[in-house]
Amino acid sequence: MQHLDVQVVERGLAWLSAGETIWFCTVLSTFGSSPRAPGSIMVARGDGRHLGSLSGGCVEEDFLARVQRGEFSQRVSVERYGDQRDRPAVEHRLPVQLPCGGILEVLIERLTPEHGNRQHLAELLAVLRGQRQKIRTVSLVDGCSSLFPVAHTDGDTVSVTADIASIRVGPASRLVIAGLSSVARTCAEFAVALGYEVILCEPREEEYRDFHLAGVRLEKIFPSRFIAEAGNCHQQTAVVAMTHDPRIDDLAMMEAVKTDAFYIGVMGSRRTSDKRATRLLSTGGLTAEELDRIHMPIGLALGSKTPAEIALAVMADILRVQRGIRRDAL
C-alpha cells in the first residue's frame, strides 16, 4: 500500500464521522496497460470532492460526474472501464477509453455514515498504520465487508470470485533513510513521489539544520536507535544508509537485520562493501544469514555516477524487491 492510501482512508473516515455518505473505490483488476495497480483506492463525496486515484484521470472524471448525477446509489457495484463494449447506446454516453489502451474493473462501495461503516474504516486505517497484512473481503451481493488475518505475506493483491472480492491490505510502504547526504536527499524526493512514507534519521545538527523536504519526517536521533524501536520497521519498510560514515551506516545495518524490513541496503563500492561485510561479521556480531539480507553495494547496476543517478538505482532496486522481481528477470 502507498502512504497516500492512509490519507484516503483517513479522509473517508472523517467524512463519515461528519455525517457524509461516501463512495469508496478499489481497482480490482487491470488488463493490458493501466496507470494504477490492483488495490489502488479512491474516496469521493456526492459533491465531487475526492482523494486518491484509479487511473490517469479519465476514469475519475467519468465516475465523479456520474456520482453527482445520482448514479451508483446501490450499496456495492463493479464498473468496467476501457472496454469498447461499455453500454453507450443504453446510457447515451461514449465509453471511457484509457489513453494507454488498457481496461480496469473498479469496486464501488457506497458507505453511509452509520456506526458499522465508520468502525470498518477505522479498523482498515489501523491495518495501514500497523505492522501486519490482512485480507479485506467485500461481498459483491450485499456489500458486507470484513478484515481477516493472513498466514502468508505473499500472494495476489486482489482476488475475485462470483460473489466475494478479497483485497490484501497492509502497512503503507515506508522508507527509513539512515543519515543525510546528497544521495539521501534525492532518494527521499523520489520515494515521496512514489508514495512511500519517508522518515529521515539524522543526529548531526550541522547536517539537518537547514533541511526541509515536503513529505519527509525528520527524526533527530541516531538511525540505529530509531530502527531498534518496536514498530518502526514493519514488513513494508525499506532501510537504506548512504553517508559513508560507519557510525551511521554500520550501526543502522546491525539493527535493520533484526527487523521485518523487506529491503536493507548500504551505499559503497564493491571494495568498501567487502570491508564493511568483514566488520559486520567480526565486530558487529552479524551472522552470515543476517549479512545476506543486506544489499551492498546498494541499488541496480546502472553505471550511476551522480547523486540523482545513484538515488534512481536505489529506488528502482527497492521497487524490484517489493514487486518480487528477480534481478535476472529484468
UniProtKB/TrEMBL annotation:
Residue stretches making up the XdhC Rossmann domain: 175-318
Boundaries of every XdhC- CoxI domain copy: 15-70
UniProt-listed InterPro entries: MoCofactor_Util/Proc (IPR052698), XdhC_CoxI (IPR003777), XdhC_Rossmann_dom (IPR027051)
Pfam families: XdhC_C, XdhC_CoxI
Protein name: XdhC family protein
